[in-house]
Amino acid sequence: MALYYDRATAQRELGDLEAAVADLDETLTLDPNHPSAYHDRGMIRSQQGDPAAAVADLGQALSQNSSSAEAFYVRGLSHHRLGDLDAAVADYAEAIRLDAEYGEALYRRGLAYAALEDQAAAVADFSQAIEHMPQDAEIYYHRAQAQAALNAWGPAIDDYTEAAVLDPQNATVYHERGLALQERGDLSAAAADYDRALELLDNGSRSAGELAPLHHRRGVAHYELGRLDAAIADFDRTIDLDPDNETAYNNRGLARAARGDLDAAVADYSQAIALNDHYAAAYYNRGLARSELGELEEAMADYDQAISINPQYSSAYYSRGLARSAKDDLQSAIRDYTEAVTLDPQDAAALSRRGMALAATGDLDAAVDDYTRAISADPKHVAAYHQRGLVRARQGAAEAAVDDYTLAITILAGDPGRASELGGLHISRGDACLELCDLESAVADYAQAIAVLPQASRAALDKATAHFKLGLVYAAQGQTAVAVGEFTQAIVLFPDGSVGPVPGPDVAVPSRAPAYYHRGLAHSDLGDLDAAVADYTRAIDRLPEGPAGGPARATICSERGLALWQLGNPQAAMEDYDQAIAYCPSDATVYASRGRALLDLGEMESAVADFGQSIALDPEYPLAY
Fold first, then answer.
1. What secondary structure does DSSP assign to 499-512, as a single string?
2. CB-based contacts of 586: which residues, under 8 Å, 6+ apart?
3. Cα separation of 570 and 558, whole Å?
4. Among 244, 363, 443, 589, who pairs with 358 as Cys (CB 3.0-4.6 Å)?
């Protein structure tokens, strides 16, 4: 019997495990209670990858001798391999109880705790294991993994760094540290780690399964850094390596959309959907791209799909609300914004947009409530302050409006990236100051808007508006020559296609037409009647055709008629007054003005008739008498 056992020991040392097991079998046949044969056979079976047999043998051994830390450790390993993590933890604990410096058992118990998702216990065991095995890169790596699972990104990065020092050729460590750096927002360092990992993996000799995730993660880092071309190149490579990766198509779509290539983005989102027709985010992103392309019906269909897949998708409700608002379907938009707010009561953007829709339907009090809730959710939500100010101005609460605009301006102060918003706020505050008859403050705000607004695209239109409104204030103050200069600046900045009605000198929709009209008024006040006539003509030429431009044409024709009459051309004046009356037959002033022109032409009866009509329309109009 002893000979079989001794030979088994020798066979084991020579590496002939099968022969060793055969001799241990003979030993146990001859002596079923042999104190060491079960232990040794259990150890060998663990080496051979037969964890169930190892558990059985080591159980027998431990029933005879429960003082072997190694036996508990190896049985713990076998339980671990069989997926019985609780049993593994119990055996590792016994091994550690018997040998408090058993670093390998501490490490393995840490792995079992991590698999059981008890990351705090895992970190504690890995930390003790490191005390006994300070040069083991694997333990640092796994402690980093546990720290990352706890969102403890700083300690995780420190452990990955130590693992990289101990094992500098391990690409996985750089990959995982890159993920942790990315989660912490250190995107440049993350991209550098992905670079190193890819360098170590060597594109020519590693599998697509290893390379594709790294290219994808690096692409995400590049995208978040705004390096769109680099991001697209990495997503291209990911797709080359893994053609069925719907996430890579979706993310390449995001990068292409950010670069302004919306058609290509739509194609990528469509491919992602073809690979996974339950990919809610791809439907949502395609909806965003189609909205930007002006394809609102198609966009809403995509938002519908995203919502049907994920009824909790608050952003999809919000974006569908934007599309419905753009189509003037305000009630449906309000329902969508309400759904978004129900899902996320702190969604300041949805609250603010619902406020805008409510304001557009005339429900001003409800709009103010929504803007107030948006500000409570996000005290720096500039648009909510601005829109609440606009509604309060409509309600006649100009002082409260000024307060809202001022708060928004304070938030934006010193942020050059938001100059367009800041300029718009100064214009709105200037308007409110005008309502309060605070002309000095209005002038200061319009001037500040001009100073901060860049001369490009939408900002140029706002700058033109500020010049225009500043001209109105200067004209009201009697600084007519200065007003002419401001109207001229507005005319230069307004786009060629800019048209709009001219309701009158107190209220004006900014565009080239009213700018010419008001500059004409200023020229007339300065006595430059020829220049006034020229500007009135330019204004008329830029008015919309049809009924929409009728009241404005009446106003400007009347003023041009007056200027022509003052220039001694009553016949031309008559033609303008005729047009003005045709467009607005209820205006007493035009009949009185035409009566004066008829007097100059010697047509007394017609003049008397016009004066009479003027008095009938407005008995209080003194010039008709």
1. ------SSS---SH
2. 617
3. 12
4. 363
Mean of pLDDT over the chain: 90
pLDDT in tens, 269-282: 999 999 999 999 99
At how many degrees (to 10) do helices 382-394 and 419-435 cross?
20
Tokens of 231: 């991001």
Name the residue among 484, 539, 478 with its Cα closest to residue 508.
539
Asked whether the beta carbons of 308 and 284 are under 8 A apart, the reply is no
Question: Within 167-186, where are the H helices?
Answer: 171-184
Question: Largest alpha-carbon pair distance within the chain?
Answer: 148
Q: What is the pLDDT of residues 115-136, one digit of tens each?
A: 999 999 999 999 999 999 999 9
| Predicted TM-score (pTM) of this structure | 0.79
User: What CA–CA distance (Å, rounded) separates 254 from 260?
Assistant: 10
Element (H or E) spanning 185, and its range?
A: none
Neighbours of 461 (CB within 10 A): 18
Please report the DSSP string for 432-484 in residue order.
HHHHTT-HHHHHHHHHHHHHHS-SSHHHHHHHHHHHHHHHHHHHHTT-HHHHH
CB-based contacts of 308, cutoff 8 Å, min separation 6: none
Residues 437, 432: Cα–Cα separation, whole Å: 9
DSSP string, 536-574: HHHHHHTSPSSGGGHHHHHHHHHHHHHHHHHTT-HHHHH
Distance CA 265, CA 280 (A): 16
* Whole-number Å distance between alpha carbons of 160 and 535: 73
Q: How far apart are CA 566 and CA 533, in angstroms?
A: 11
Tell whether the model's pLDDT for residue 23 goes beyond 90: no
